[in-house]
Amino acid sequence: MRAPSSELPIEFEGVTVASGSVTILDDVSLIFDGGAPTILIGPNGSGKSTLLRVAMGLLPPSRGRVTWGGRIDVPPLRRAIVFQRPVMLRRSAGANIRFALGAAGVPRADHVRRTGELLELVGLAPLADRAARRLSGGEQQRLALARALARDPAVLFLDEPTASLDPVATKAVEDIIRAVSARNIKVVMATHDLGEARRLAGDIVMLHRGRIVERGPAASFFDTPQSCEARAFLAGDLLI
Predict the structure, then answer these.
(1) Could you give all domains of the chain from N- to C-terminal order, each with its CATH number?
(2) 4-8, 61-65, 137-141, 143-147, range with the lowest pLDDT
(3) Is the pTM of this model over 0.90?
């Protein structure tokens, strides 16, 4: 089991992100701590991707602050993020992971072992020598997860990782997420898929117009939503 992370908890304190006259996140306060995956849901444009980027440290708040383990300006050495459409390097699947291991400062003597472990975890061991850009979309997403895990993260942020995948590829990615969470890595994931949120979430954060409109345990959220926005969203109504 992983030791407690100095990255956690990640705390947003009155965080606002604005671009010109457009407010993307609006006075967001919340805490990400250890445990089962936290799933971000909400309509397109609600601020999910921006929240992930701020939590990763890629985007500074316009107002408010974010702390990692009670500290500010913490380098993202134990944080990793996977985007919906990851970029594959022009090399084999195995070499993509070895590059990530080198970037993470893993000793070269450990690269072969760690590459094999990570490829096995994501089910790509037989494809180690295949060009990464010749992998299917689902295989590329699994390779992106392996590269992110090469950093030995305490927190893994996922931005719509199954949005363009078929059901078989989606299940493969979800299985990896469960395995990652079982290793005591905190997963924070944005998804548009309510079924996926039900399958994976320990707790739910719902955003609308850049604000948190509801947060709570997944079971309570789906069974007895408290906000009118959550009830409408779960009913399939459009939120404007």
Answers:
(1) 10-234 (3.40.50.300)
(2) 4-8
(3) yes
173 beta partners: none
Distance (Å) of CA 94 to CA 82, 112, 121, 134, 217: 18, 9, 13, 13, 38
Across 187-197, average pLDDT: 96
Beta strands at 38-41 and 203-208: parallel, antiparallel or unpaired: parallel
Specify the pLDDT at position 6.
77
Structural contact between residues 193 and 162, judged by C-beta atoms closer than 8 angstroms: yes
* Phi, psi angles (nearest 5°) of residue 92: -70, 170
Residue type for 43, please?
P
Residue of 194, 149, 143 lying closest to 169 (CA atoms) = 143
Buried/exposed code over 6-41 (b: 16+ C-beta within 10 A; e: otherwise): ebbebbbeebebeeeeebbbbebebebeeebbbbbb
